[in-house]
Design goal:
mainly beta, single chain, 10-stranded antiparallel β-barrel, Lipocalin
Length: 159
């Protein structure tokens, strides 16, 4: 199985639910862009939580490009709230599993990305602090083709 999320530059849109520690479900909308540079891969975007008041999380991950072991990728993310999270993406069949933590802040968690087809993934994850769930979430992710229609047609033509 060939994964498209992370492994191909693209824009992904998502919709789903985020549950707060008290169990209240909140609707979410997300946008993530993945770019590949020689020195690193970048995963950046936003998650909007449509609560009262609405909240927006901004994320930017620095991912080490894969070496010979393309089944595992190290990543880092820094924020004032969570500190410097360090994690690893592991490819396991049709899944990508991310595990992460921050020694200084104590936050840790995991996220599972399951491939439905090359343009669709399901995501589920949890963020914890000192053994207590802070947030959990579930999202449907869909790849957006932001290229002009003429380029999309050209890319589909057989050589």
């Amino acid at each position: 199985m060939t994964h498209t999320f992370l492994f191909e530059p693209a824009v992904w849109n998502g919709t789903g639910t985020l549950w707060r520690a008290d169990g209240e479900p909140l609707e979410t909308i997300a946008r993530t862009e993945i770019a590949h540079r020689p020195e690193c891969w970048l995963l950046s975007g936003t998650v909007k939580v449509l609560g009262a008041p609405p909240t927006e999380f901004v994320h930017a991950y620095w991912i080490e490009p894969p070496g010979k072991d393309a089944a595992s990728l190290k990543w880092t993310f820094e924020s004032a709230t969570f500190g410097k999270l360090q994690g690893r993406f592991a490819v396991i069949g049709s899944s990508i599993l991310s595990v992460y933590g921050c020694e200084s802040s104590g936050y840790y968690g995991s996220e599972h990305l399951g491939q439905i087809d090359p343009d669709n993934y399901r995501s589920a994850g949890v963020l914890l602090l000192k053994g207590q769930i802070i947030y959990s979430w579930q999202m449907a992710l869909q790849r957006s083709d932001v290229r002009p229609p003429s380029e999309r047609r050209r890319a589909r033509r057989p050589a």
